[in-house]
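Good morning,

Attaching, inline, the backbone tokens for the sequence recovery test we're adding to the shared suite. The designed sequence is right after.
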């Protein structure tokens, strides 16, 4: 069978860093209040005029270089984002142009914080179907553009950044020891769409609006939903938690990360945590954390890596990948 093998990864963070102490100068908060409740110490902010496609381009170029490929080798570009450059066209189309590509397909996926996982699953199925050979999947966000800085329930959480991976279709034995994506699982419960939302939109208000969130209800749903996604992905691949070398979760809240790991019996030393440095970068958080762990040598070829995310919708999902 065909497997989607992860051949390279890359990431990008803007130059400007905003610490909790920086936020406390204009938001009714403190470093102690933010760090104890979320685990966040700082986040990055895109510069004036720096767009989501700019961040995505840097991450994509890093992933291509890591994979030893060029844009000419790629025939599918998927960008997971909640903060596109424009209402239209898709940021993926803008990125495709900036990569010098005029071939293949390019489109965005909007699943909020689950965007990268959704994009990974979509790309995997296109590659397994034989419709594309090499895919570039990116999670990229400029979330600071849609924050209400007077709302400390959301303004302290989010930051900007981008992460990318390159997937290549390769023949495999069809065994659970194969390299590549072994399983993916996606879910959405639209009844909960108001738990993480914006107070504006193109059709509703002709504006983007600001992020709004019911934190307690999100937390209440998070651990259960994430655990379900992980258990199904493992079951579909005929594997167990004990087989997993690294758990790379969406960096939403340290309490959610810890509660999920505890519920599933994942040792703390196997969990990749970057929330203190990056904050919540929505669809970019999983590939950002993954790239950090690859670059520092923790995650190596042959390791079994478990990705998961949950975001507005509510959406959630998981992916099991052997490098």
């Amino acid at each position: 069978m065909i497997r989607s093998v992860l051949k390279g990864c890359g990431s990008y963070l803007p130059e400007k860093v905003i610490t909790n102490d920086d936020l406390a100068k204009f938001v009714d908060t403190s470093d102690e209040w933010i760090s104890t409740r979320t685990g966040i110490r700082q986040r990055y902010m895109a510069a004036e005029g720096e767009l989501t496609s700019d961040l995505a381009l840097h991450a994509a170029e890093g992933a291509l270089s890591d994979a030893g490929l060029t844009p000419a080798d790629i025939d599918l570009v998927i960008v997971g984002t909640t903060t596109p450059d424009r209402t239209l066209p898709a940021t993926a189309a803008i990125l495709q142009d900036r990569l010098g590509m005029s071939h293949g397909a390019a489109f965005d996926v909007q699943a909020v914080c689950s965007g990268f996982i959704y994009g990974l699953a979509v790309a995997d199925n296109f590659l397994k179907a034989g419709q594309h050979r090499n895919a570039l999947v990116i999670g990229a966000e400029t979330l600071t553009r849609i924050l209400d800085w007077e709302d400390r329930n959301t303004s302290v959480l989010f930051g900007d950044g981008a992460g990318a991976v390159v997937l290549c279709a390769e023949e495999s034995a069809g065994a659970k020891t194969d390299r590549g994506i072994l399983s993916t699982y996606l879910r959405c419960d639209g009844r909960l769409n108001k738990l993480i939302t914006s107070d504006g939109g193109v059709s509703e208000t002709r504006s983007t609006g600001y992020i709004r969130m019911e934190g307690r209800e999100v937390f209440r749903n998070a651990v259960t939903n994430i655990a379900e996604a992980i258990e199904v992905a493992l079951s579909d691949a005929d594997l167990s938690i004990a087989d997993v070398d690294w758990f790379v979760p969406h960096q939403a809240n340290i309490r959610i990360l810890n509660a999920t790991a505890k519920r599933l019996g994942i040792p703390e030393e196997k969990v990749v945590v970057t929330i203190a440095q990056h904050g919540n970068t929505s669809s970019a958080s999983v590939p950002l954390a993954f790239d950090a762990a690859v670059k520092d040598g923790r995650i190596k070829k042959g390791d079994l890596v478990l990705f998961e995310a949950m975001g507005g919708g509510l959406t959630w999902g998981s992916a099991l990948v052997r490098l």
